[in-house]
Write a structure and sequence with these properties.
Blueprint: H1 2-6, H2 11-19, E1 22-26, H3 32-40, E2 45-50, H4 53-65, E3 72-76, E4 88-94, H5 103-112, E5 114-124, E6 126-127, H6 131-134, H7 137-151, E7 157-158, H8 159-168, E8 175-178, E9 184-189, H9 192-202
Parallel strand pairs: 1-2, 1-4, 2-3, 4-5, 6-7
Antiparallel strand pairs: 5-9, 8-9
Length: 204
């Protein structure tokens, strides 16, 4: 979805990655997305942050097996307290923000890692908010998925809840795009003004 649908909505990001941008995958799991980006954009340098030890091990093993150690680094760290010496052109959450224990603090930490002109991007599945949507096959699938999420102590979010998370974290208003697959992208671009605003807020 990211390659076939997501990037089509953000052509300037595609150019940054082609030119050799820096990428941060937040809660990167087993690292498959990182490897896919590294292969698609051979000039990129990437970092994955993951807090679950087994996922860290799987991601590092995959990076080694893919012979991409020079371009991909996996950091074991809690998301809300992560920090980096160099910023990133893309900071990315895929199907994970709704599962994090503290999504607001996680978004704030991620925003701090975005370079001027870079983007924070969230790709996730949203619960239907209209009864007609809920009665479609796609809507029924999402509500069924949400039951599984609830058993695990998490839940899917509606689109307006993702937008509200950006607001609560002090980020610029989220731009939202519904993708053909039914997933949604929410993103904010970092400008000089937005950088000053969030830095001031976090220093209080």
């Amino acid at each position: 979805m990211f390659f076939q649908e997501g990037l089509a909505t953000m052509p300037t990001l595609t150019q940054h990655l082609a030119d050799g941008g820096r990428v941060l995958d937040v809660a990167c799991g087993g690292g498959r997305w990182l490897v896919a980006v590294a292969r698609r954009f051979p000039n990129t340098h990437l970092v994955g942050v993951e807090f679950e030890p087994d996922s860290v091990d799987r991601a590092r093993r995959l990076v080694t097996e893919s012979e991409l150690e020079r371009r991909i680094r996996i950091d074991a760290h809690e998301i809300p307290t992560m920090a980096f010496d160099q910023p990133f052109d893309l900071v990315y959450f895929q199907d994970v923000l709704h599962e994090l224990p503290d999504p607001v603090r996680s978004l704030r930490a991620a925003w701090q890692a975005v370079a001027p002109g870079g983007r924070l991007v969230v790709l996730d599945w949203c619960l239907p908010t209209h009864p007609d949507e809920a009665r479609t096959l796609h809507g029924e699938l999402l509500w069924g998925t949400n039951l599984d999420e609830l058993y695990q102590g998490t839940r899917l979010l509606a689109a307006d809840e993702f937008v509200a998370l950006f607001e609560r974290a002090g980020l610029p208003a989220a731009t939202s795009v519904e993708l053909p697959s039914g997933a949604s992208i929410f993103y904010a671009e970092r400008t000089a003004d937005s950088a000053s605003a969030i830095d001031t807020d976090l220093s209080r």
